[in-house]
Amino acid sequence: MIGHGQYDGGAFFEGGLELWHRGTGKRRRLIADNREVLLCRFDGDRIRFTVSPVDDLDTWEDPGRTLTTYEIPVDAHEVELTSLTPWAVHEDVPYLPYQGPHEGIHRLETLARRHGVEYRPEGLPWAMLWRDEDLAVATGRGEVVLWHPDGSAERWDVGAPAIGLWDAGDRLLVATELPRRFDDPPGHLPTTLLGLDPTTGAREVLFRGTHHLSRTPCGTFLAEGLDLPAPRGHDHLITADGVRRITLTRPYPGCPAFSGGPGLYRVAGTWDDTATLVTVDPQSGMERPVTDLSHPGRSLDRTLGVHHDGLAILAITWRDPSSGRRTAGLRGVQADGSTAWEHPFPCLPVALAPLDPGRLAVLGTGGLLEIRETNGGSVTDSCTLPVGPAEPVSLAHRAHRLAVGLTDGRILLVSTSP
Q: Looking at the record's lineage, which domain of life comes first (predicted)?
């Protein structure tokens, strides 16, 4: 489905809504009106789409504008909007910044066609893992890609941007999340946990909700209810036997849970309150406080964590409330909550990965990669990766090999010394 529009040089934005069959190349117009379509989505056997006003001069002096959402069946053909009852009317929607043509992408597409190939940029690699010699990647294009050592790849469509990936033996577990938008319907559930068979591509929906998903070492998933949309969703434990509702303290924003020992670590609290590192039992869902992460004069902005060599190792980003400046540090926390070691980090941390016993990889903005000892946290090796204008977003490790995912879709392979 394609919703489109363009400025006609006057007071109007023209466009339309069409269905395009990729295999046959045939197109079908869904609406008869020449209206700019800003948003569109499938909802079962229905299509929901949002259009601009007929005349943008009606709201020219306003900081926002009124947009209208309609709903039609998938088999619709050239429907007149005047024959429809609006599904929703959105008032005072801010104008989105204008995005001009992507000249760089257009040039790459033209160059590729001259050589008889198709230019296809890879999706943003939100999560990665190694399966023997193959590298599985969950991408923002709504795909899971399995790269083989010879450079070939298998691809599976998972229906929405893929943001999480776990190995479950004969299948992959994939977390997908639809972007949240102003036209989301009541009860919209953007987060999905899928089981994906990498031999057939078959998918099984295991859970839907408005949650952040984390996996324990025993295979249980924790689904933490998020604050958006309010009120906060319920928390759940997802096991092979089904889904069980539990009650957790409010998660601290920007601090995803991580696997540790037999269960999980998570950060509880709010921006105007203290932040506490707690553990969650994967069977009962009971929480136990470990240590206070609050810092005088600074607000906790984000945390990342891994459990390695008996320590919960945290990469913490702090924000100065007065200046907005952010600084970062690394901290090793023992099971009793005491601090084993603490060091500053020269940039903002992006990902952590436990290596062989005694070592840890820390990835930061600008492509900084450090290898640190888990006993003491000192740096044993470091380098700056050739990321160019891109930034790292994900990290996967296997033996002495690291895969680093970048915002432009590239994946760098890095070898570490034994």
A: Bacteria
pLDDT score, position 245: 87
Strand partners, 145: 137, 155
153 belongs to a structural domain: no
CA–CA dist 185, 41 (Å, integer): 11
Q: How far apart are CA 238 and CA 233, in angstroms?
A: 15
**Edge-to-edge strand list for the sheet holding 275-280:** 258-260, 263-269, 275-280, 287-292
Q: Strand, coil or helix: what is 407?
A: coil
Give 222's DSSP letter. Answer: E
Sign of CA dihedral 396, 397, 398, 403: positive
Return the SS3 of 144: strand
| pLDDT per position as a tens digit, 127-154 | 999 999 999 999 999 999 999 999 999 9
326, part of any domain:
yes
Q: What is the domain range of residue 25?
A: 2-94
Number of structural domains found in the chain: 2
DSSP string, 165-220: EEE-SSSEEEEEEPPP-TTPPTT---EEEEEE-TTT--EEEEEEESEEEEE-TTSP
Q: Between residues 241 and 305, which one has the greater pLDDT?
A: 305
Distance CA 361, CA 357 (A): 12
Asked if the structure places residue 100 within a domain, the reply is no
Q: Under a CB-based contact definition with an 8 Å cutoff, are residues 295 and 331 in contact?
A: no
**What is Dmax (Cα atoms) for the chain?**
70
Tell me if 146 is assigned to some domain. no
pTM of the model: 0.80
Q: Could you tell me the CA-to-CA distances from 275 to 232, 290, 345 in Å, in that order?
A: 18, 11, 20
Q: What is the length of the chain?
A: 418
Q: Among residues 94, 121, 139, which one ends one of the domains?
A: 94
Q: Where are the beta strands (DSSP E) in 54-161?
A: 64-73, 88-94, 125-131, 134-139, 143-147, 153-157
Using DSSP, state whether 248 is helix, strand or coil. Answer: coil
Give the helix ranges, DSSP H, for 70-129: 103-114
